[in-house]
């Protein structure tokens, strides 16, 4: 549906025909292959990555408000993107790699600081907030000192899939897939970790190692998504909660369901962003907030509060 | 955990990965073989790319309003433009010309749907740089133009009139304007070097601009000295202290965005300072708000008017 619908609706038969013929000069082929397919894939990967990242963080940190923002992913990615644009404007094609690198480095910094004081759930969250604030200040300083920096900062902060290409997705996509695969394998250990540090230790789990691995997986997925989609923050917070309403807390089921719901939700929001006010596009992050916020409020009002941890 | 269940799970995940890998790699574009072709026109754009046009473009899309105007001044027609053509330039366009989004966020699908054979882009807008990658894959010719000063406009007009094949319009909208500017500059008294401050005001604040800016270049050509060149900190923070220290002869303001809100922001900001009214420029009624269409948006064929407008303010006796 995402490939068929847009500013011009293309029937499925035309899509198949255009792909088979492979005529690069055909505008239908160009729209499908160079615009809609990369965009659809980007939305699926970003939605999947951010949702699973959020689910992992909420589980291992035992904090229902945890999201990729909390561990410095967005701020780290944002800083490195700005640095590239400010000091290497001829190398804007490196933005994706830069954002990914920034996200991972920020998480390492958060964990390094947290480890000095015990690497508990609370210290990781507090370190994340502190590091995010610090990195945000550096970003703002760079933009103040170099005001002509070529960067669609607003678009990056809100997030979107406009102008995405397969090259940008393929680099980050590999990391998302591998991290997702690894997360599914250790999902059982995450269930044990969710019982609490003492219980998990008594069951033979290496709590610090598993928590570290989970943080890295969450950072890899979220950093990869941010590197090509910008700072889409809503998905990582809300979709895990919705998934929990539907399937409970078992990470072996929760993670795949979060991936699926996150992909669907992001695709739907991107579709609306493209068609609602065509030819003008609304940033997808705005649509997400419009749709997701009220939906989540409805779920809360329906009285499922008992299934949320504080 | 049960080994059989774990194996099934691992196998399922591997299968999904394999499918995704094939999707990711299957969409990879194969490199084309370049063959010797005789091009209609070739030139180098502002990013140093060689642009080869196989035929005379008939379906041109411009993603910058001022470039759309330049293309039309060169005698060309437009298949698609961005909304700033209407909102900022009030250009009259044929009904068949489509709006393809905003200057900062053009709609790639709309652009491709027009089957353009030439697209005009700006290297200063990130979305344009992103779009160029897709246009390249779709074999849609494009060129980056960077127009900051009159010389840049003249170069662009020269290229556009070459492409359209109407050099008379280069004479009329380019060289004639250059002559107008040269005539104005000849009359400027080189001994007179008034000090000025140029401010760009917007709804949330104001900043001084230096000689990289279009309007400041005009002011500089007309013999003025910009105090922001001496005090670089003014470019970041409009400090009343430094303005008082220099006490410029003229203060020029141009607004960005909503003009009323921008001027109100100035009024509620720096103008509220009691020292403001003591500045020479303010006391002598030389605090001047300049028209946007001549000093914020690229004036194109009206560049001569921009020079004349300022010259009449600075040297009223010489430019009556």
Q: What key attributes describe this structure?
A:
A: 310 residues, mainly alpha, ABC transporter involved in vitamin B12 uptake, BtuC, 13 helices, 73% helix, 0% strand, globular, B: alpha/beta, Rossmann fold, 2 domains, five-stranded parallel β-sheet, five-stranded mixed β-sheet, 43% helix
CATH class of chain A: Mainly Alpha
Give the termini distance of chain B in whole angstroms.
93 Å
Structural class of chain B: alpha/beta
The total beta strand count of chain A reads 0
- Biggest chain pair contact, residues each? A-B, 45 and 46 residues
The geometry of chain B reads as globular
Describe the structure.
The complex is a heterodimer of chains A (310) and B (320). Chain A has 310 residues and is mainly α. Chain A is built from 13 helices and no strands. Chain A is globular and about 65 Å long. Chain B has 320 residues and is an alpha/beta fold. In chain B, helix 5 links the parallel strand 6 and strand 7. About 3% of the residues of chain B have low confidence. Classes of the chains: A mainly alpha (310), B alpha/beta (320). The interface between A and B is large, with 45 and 46 residues.
């Amino acid at each position: 549906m995402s490939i068929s619908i847009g500013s011009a609706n293309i029937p499925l038969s035309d899509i198949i025909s255009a792909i088979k013929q492979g005529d690069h000069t055909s505008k239908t082929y160009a729209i499908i292959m160079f615009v809609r397919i990369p965009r659809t894939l980007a939305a699926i990967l970003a939605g999947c990555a951010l949702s699973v990242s959020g689910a992992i963080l909420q589980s291992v940190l035992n904090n229902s408000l945890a999201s990729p923002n909390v561990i410095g992913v967005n701020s780290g990615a944002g800083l490195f993107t700005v640095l590239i644009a400010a000091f290497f404007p001829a190398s804007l094609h490196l933005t994706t790699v830069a954002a990914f690198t920034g996200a991972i480095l920020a998480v390492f910094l958060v964990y390094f600081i947290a480890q000095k004081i015990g690497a508990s759930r609370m210290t990781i969250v507090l370190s994340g907030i502190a590091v995010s604030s610090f990195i945000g200040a550096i970003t703002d300083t760079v933009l103040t000192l170099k005001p002509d920096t070529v960067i669609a900062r607003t678009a990056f902060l809100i997030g979107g899939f406009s102008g995405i290409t397969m090259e940008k997705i393929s680099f980050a996509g590999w990391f998302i897939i591998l991290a997702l695969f690894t997360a599914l394998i250790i999902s059982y250990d995450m269930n044990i970790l969710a019982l609490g540090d003492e219980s998990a230790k008594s069951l033979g789990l290496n709590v610090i190692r598993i928590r570290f691995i989970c943080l890295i997986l969450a950072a890899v997925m979220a950093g990869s998504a941010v590197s090509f989609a910008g700072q889409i923050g809503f998905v990582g917070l809300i979709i895990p909660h919705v998934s929990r309403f539907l399937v409970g807390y078992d990470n072996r089921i929760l993670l795949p369901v979060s991936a699926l719901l996150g992909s669907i939700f992001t695709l739907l929001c991107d579709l609306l962003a493209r068609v609602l006010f065509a030819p003008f596009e609304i940033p997808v992050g705005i649509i997400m907030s419009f749709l997701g916020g009220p939906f989540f409020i409805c779920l809360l009002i329906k009285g499922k509060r008992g299934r949320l941890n504080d | 955990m049960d080994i059989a269940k774990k194996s099934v799970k691992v196998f399922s995940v591997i299968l999904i990965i394999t499918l995704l890998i094939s999707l990711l790699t299957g969409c990879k574009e194969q490199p084309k073989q370049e063959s010797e072709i005789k091009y209609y026109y070739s030139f180098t754009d502002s990013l140093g790319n060689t642009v080869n046009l196989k035929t005379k473009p008939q379906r041109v899309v411009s993603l910058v309003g001022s470039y759309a105007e330049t293309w039309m001044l060169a005698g060309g027609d437009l298949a698609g433009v961005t909304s700033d053509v209407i909102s900022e330039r009030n250009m009259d366009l044929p009904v068949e010309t489509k709006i393809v989004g905003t200057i900062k966020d053009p709609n790639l699908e709309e652009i491709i749907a027009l089957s353009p054979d030439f697209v005009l882009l700006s290297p200063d807008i990130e979305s344009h740089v992103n779009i160029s990658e897709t246009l390249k894959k779709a074999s849609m010719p494009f060129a980056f133009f960077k127009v900051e000063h009159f010389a840049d406009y003249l170069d662009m007009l020269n290229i556009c009139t070459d492409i359209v094949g109407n050099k008379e319009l280069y004479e009329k909208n380019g060289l004639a304007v250059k002559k107008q500017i040269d005539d104005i500059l000849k009359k400027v008294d080189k001994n007179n070097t008034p000090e000025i401050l140029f401010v760009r005001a917007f709804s949330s604040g104001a900043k001084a601009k230096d000689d990289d800016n279009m309007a400041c270049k005009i002011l500089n050509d007309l013999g003025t000295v910009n105090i922001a060149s001496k005090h670089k900190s003014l470019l970041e923070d409009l400090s009343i202290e430094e303005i008082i220290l220099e006490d410029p002869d003229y203060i020029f303001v141009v607004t960005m965005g909503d003009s009323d809100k921008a001027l109100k922001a100035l009024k509620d900001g720096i103008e509220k300072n009691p020292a403001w009214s003591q500045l020479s420029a303010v006391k002598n009624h030389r605090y001047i708000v300049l028209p946007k269409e001549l000093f914020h948006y690229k004036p194109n064929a009206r560049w001569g008017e921009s020079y004349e407008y300022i010259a009449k303010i600075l040297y009223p006796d010489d430019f009556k």
